[in-house]
Write a structure and sequence with these properties.
The protein has one domain. Helix content is 73%, strand content 0%. The protein has three helices and no strands. It is elongated, with a radius of gyration of 20 Å.
Length: 119
């Protein structure tokens, strides 16, 4: 049996296991985005005011913004990895995780300061 290689690397169909693993990673990004959005809404609706008026809403909006970044970053990463696998190229680096992690550090520090100052 002769196996024919595609003439153009971009025509290569990657192993379905890698495609499904990439999809699972994308779904994990979406779950993270949904969790961040739910946390932002819950914070704004159910948590007593943090310090001065408006801080609670600002932190909730920050979580909402991180949610958008997680969803968009996950989608962009999924597409970049799919393209790289089809082209037989090296996988791209994950930049969205760094941004999301830094954003969560900032939100965590702000909430911690507001809780300590408010007590």
């Amino acid at each position: 049996m002769v196996r024919h290689e595609p003439e153009v690397p971009g025509d290569a169909e990657p192993d379905y296991r890698f495609t499904l693993a990439n999809e699972r990673t994308y779904l994990a990004w979406l779950r993270t985005a949904l969790s961040l959005l739910a946390a932002g809404v819950a914070l704004d609706q159910f948590v007593p005011e943090l310090g001065a008026p408006g801080y609670r809403t600002a932190v909730g909006a920050g979580l909402g913004a991180l949610s958008v970044l997680a969803a968009a970053g996950g989608l962009l990463r999924w597409r970049r990895v799919q393209r790289a696998m089809r082209a037989g190229a090296a996988l791209p680096t994950a930049r969205a995780g760094v941004v999301l992690g830094a954003g969560l550090v900032v939100v965590g520090l702000v909430v911690s300061v507001l809780l300590v100052v408010g007590a």
